[in-house]
Amino acid sequence: MKRIPKPVFFIVAILILAFAATTVFGVKYYDGDIQKTVIKGISDIRWGIDIRGGVEATFKPAEDIDATDEQLDSAKSIIETRMVSNGITDYELYADYGSDRIIVRFPWKEDETNFDPVEAISELSATAKLTFQNSEGKVLMDGSAVETAKAGVNTESGSAGEYLVLLELNDEGAKTFEQITQEYLNQNVSIYMDDIMLSSPTVQSVISGGNAQITGNFTAEEATKLANQIQGGALPFALETASYSAVSPTLGSNSLTAMGYAAVIAIILIALFMIIRYRLPGFIAVIALIGQLAITIASVTRYFNVFNSFTMTLPGIAGMILSVGMGVDANIITAERIKEEFKAGKTLDSAIERGTKNSLTAIIDGNMTVVIVSIILLLVFGPTNILSWIFGQSTTGTIYAFGYTLLMGVISNFIMGVFFSRIMLKSIAGVKCLRKKWLFGGAKE
C-alpha cells in the first residue's frame, strides 16, 4: 500500500469539521446595525410551503384586457423565470385560459417576518423589462421594439431542423437593430429579462428589415419558452392581483424542530454503532459522514452569499436522509471488506489496500443507479419542466427537491465516503501506536 503522510489525516479531519461548522452556523458579521452574510447557514434555508407555509395569488391582465393564450403563457414564463432566479423551486404555477388568470403558490422568504402576501407577490407581478445589452452591460434596445417573438425551425442548409426563435421588430426597432448589428458584428448581444440573462447570441451578420433569428442549439421546448419570455417582455399590459391569501404549512415549525432533534439523535446512534463495530474505520466513517452532510447542506443554502438559496421541502429532507443511509452503507462495505482480508491472513497495509479496492465496484454500482434516478427526477420535475406535462405541474417543486438533495447526497458520498475517507484511513494507518489489526476491525492479537 502506498503510504500517505500521517499529518494528512489530521489536516483533512480538521478541514472537514471546520467546513461542517460553517455550513451549519454560517459566517455573519455586523456592519453597524446591518447584519451581513459571508457564508449562509441552516438558518438561511428557504423552507417549502409544506414546512413553513407561503402565499397563493391569482393574477390577471390589468384594465380587463382580453389576453390571448400566447400572452398568458408569456406572463406565466416571466413569473416562473423570476421565481427560479430567486431560488424558489417549490412552487405551483397554472394558467387558466378561460378566465385569463394565472394562479401561483410559493413559499415565504427565508428571512420573512411580517408574512405580508402583498409584499411577497409585488415582485412577481411587476411589469417585466426586456433589454438587449452589449458585453459591458449597456442597454442597446428595450422590449418595446419587439412586435412578436415565436419559436421556429431553421430551414437553411447545414442547419436545417434546428430550433430557433424568430423576432419581428416594429419600424423603429428595425432601424435600431440594424445599427446594433452593424456596430456589434461578430460580437455578443445579450437578451435580459429584468436582471436575468435569457440568451447571449453572437451577431453573425447585419440584420435589416425588422426580422431576426436567435440560435443556440435549442430544443423545441427551450425555443418556445424563450420566445414566450421575450414576447412577455413586450406585453402591452401589466399584471394585477385578482386575489391573494396566506397558505398554512402542512407540517409546521414544531414538527421541523422535532425532526432536527431526531436527526441529531440518529447521527449520534449511527456514530456509536460505527465506532463500536468497526473501530478506527468506523471513526473515520463518522467524520466522512459529517462532511457528506455538510456538502449536502451547502448545496441547499448555496453556501456563499453570491448564490440564491434552494427551497427545502419535506421530500427534500427525505432525500437527504436516504443519501445519508447510502453514505453509511458505503463505509460499512469498505470496513467489512477490510475485515475479510484480515481473516484471509493479510497484513494491515495489504488488508486496507485490498479492502478499499474490492469494495469500490459495489459502492459505485449501488450509487450510480440512484444518480440516474435522481437526474430523471430533476429533468422531469425541475424548473425546466421537461416532460412535466405528463406528470402534472402540482408536484414539480416537491419532487424536484427530493431528486436534488438525493443527487447532491450521493455526489458528496463519493467525495467524502469514498475519496477522503480512504485518504484518512491510509494516513492514520501510518501512525505507529495505532498499527494494530484489531483497531481496524481484525481480531485481537
Topology:
Layout: H1 7-25, E1 27-31, E2 34-39, E3 46-47, H2 49-52, E4 54-61, H3 69-85, E5 92-96, E6 101-107, H4 117-125, E7 130-133, E8 139-142, E9 146-153, E10 163-169, H5 171-183, E11 190-193, E12 196-199, E13 211-218, H6 220-233, E14 239-247, H7 253-278, H8 280-301, E15 311-312, H9 314-343, H10 348-381, H11 388-391, H12 396-428
Parallel strand pairs: 3-15
Antiparallel strand pairs: 1-2, 4-6, 4-14, 5-6, 7-8, 7-11, 9-10, 10-13, 11-12
Helix pairs in contact: 1-8, 1-12, 3-6, 7-8, 8-9, 8-12, 9-10, 9-12, 10-12
CATH topology of the largest domain: Multidrug efflux transporter AcrB transmembrane fold
Which structural class do you get from the secondary structure elements? Answer: alpha+beta
| Strand order of the biggest β-sheet | 5-6-4-14
N to C succession of SSEs = HEEEHEHEEHEEEEHEEEHEHHEHHHH
Number of domains: 3
Low-pLDDT parts are none
Q: Note the main sheet.
A: 4 strands, antiparallel
Write a concise keyword list for the protein shown above.
single chain; 445 residues; alpha+beta; Multidrug efflux transporter AcrB transmembrane fold; four-stranded antiparallel sheet; 15 strands; elongated
Q: In a nutshell, what does this entry contain?
A:
This protein is α+β, with helices and mostly antiparallel strands. The protein has helices at residues 7-25, 49-52, 69-85, 117-125, 171-183, 220-233, 253-278, 280-301, 314-343, 348-381, 388-391, 396-428; strands at 27-31, 34-39, 46-47, 54-61, 92-96, 101-107, 130-133, 139-142, 146-153, 163-169, 190-193, 196-199, 211-218, 239-247, 311-312.
